[in-house]
Amino acid sequence: MAEAVERTDELVREYLLFRGFTHTLRQLDAEIKADKEKGFRVDKIVDQLQQLMQVYDLAALRDYWNYLERRLFSRLEDMYRPTINKLKTSLFRFYLVYTIQTNRSDKAQEFFAKQATELQNQAEWKDWFVLPFLPSPDTNPIFATYFSRQWADTFIVSLHNFLSVLFQCMPVPVILNFDAECQRTSQVQEENEVLRQKLFALQAEIHRLKKEERQPEEEEALVQHKLPSYVSNMDRLGDSELAMVCSQRNASLSQSPRVGFLSSLLPQSKKSPSRLLPAQAPPQAQSSAKKESFGGQSTVQPPT
User: Fold this and answer.
1) CB–CB of 167/1 below 8 Å?
2) Cβ contacts of residue 274 below 8 Å, gap of 6+?
3) 67 and 89: one domain?
């Protein structure tokens, strides 16, 4: 809340300067400087109480606490009244202990002289009226606890926490919520940007996974040179016909007899029957042929 108040003060100051309300701006600065609520800064309020105790200004200390009760504590429910009374009692006891520790017993006597009417009927103050007259109150069983450092620290922390909770629960004007709404809007925008980046990353990952799934299929298609079905069938049909023609040609070449080159050029009707060479004729045919040749020679007579 303190940050929102400080930010709103700056916005109002900027607006007054923009509008030229210089007199109002000077008055605002003066009132902010004398602000008893310290811009709802808990640490500054606690420091102010301690500073008043250190200068032994009992009247200012009492007036400042009464201001806090009237301005802030009065907004609380009645169930918090016992807590407020305990804090007030501890504050005055803290002041008394400080006067004794700093050897200012006269300030302790002054305290009881001014507060006697208010405190004499309260049971928790019955034993404290003899405090200024004790030689060593820090060793007294009744007051020894209040002279310890632990008790003083506990009181300061309790007062600080109480004021913090009070400021957080206190209703605030709309202008103070403006800064909170701006911060909330900025936070939502940052969250949306983070979610958008996550979405882009997921989309990129999905695209990469799909690409990896399609890659083996594409590689297989490139290796096999896949073509349309009808083209593949035509290729297979042409290959089979070519193989059949080659096999038939080889068979015809192996079965056909060897003929001379000139006889292959002649028509079939004019081709003479092929004769076997003498070397290729059977032995009986060769012997009969020899006999005929000898017989022919014997019958032929030379002309007269």
Assistant:
1) yes
2) 259
3) yes
Residues 7 and 76 in one domain: no
- Inform me whether the pLDDT recorded for 123 exceeds 80: yes
Is 120 a member of any domain?
A: yes
Task: Tell me if 65 is assigned to some domain.
Answer: yes
Q: 35, exposed or middle or buried, with CB in 10 Å at 0-12, 13-18, 19+?
A: middle
Residues 21 and 141 in one domain: no
User: 131 with 99, same domain?
Assistant: yes
Amino acid at the residue 178? F
Identify the three-state secondary structure at position 244. helix
Same domain, 39 and 98: yes
Residue 91 CA to residue 65 CA, distance in Å, equals 9
* CA separation for the pair 158, 274 (Å, rounded): 140
Mean pLDDT, residues 126-131 taken together: 91
First to last CA, the chain: 167
The closest of 52, 56, 81 to 65, measured between CA atoms, is 52
DSSP, residue by residue, 1-35: -HHHHHHHHHHHHHHHHHHT-HHHHHHHHHHHHT-
Q: Is the pTM of this model over 0.70?
A: no
CA distance 100 to 144: 12
Q: Are residues 155 and 74 in the same domain?
A: yes
* Weakest mean pLDDT among 55-69, 102-116, 169-183, 259-273: 259-273
**pLDDT at position 238, please?**
54
Nearest-5° Cα angle at 182, 11 to 30:
20
d(CA 134, CA 130): 7
Cα separation of 294 and 254, whole Å? 42
Amino acid at 275: R
Last residue of a domain, one of 147, 172, 197: 172
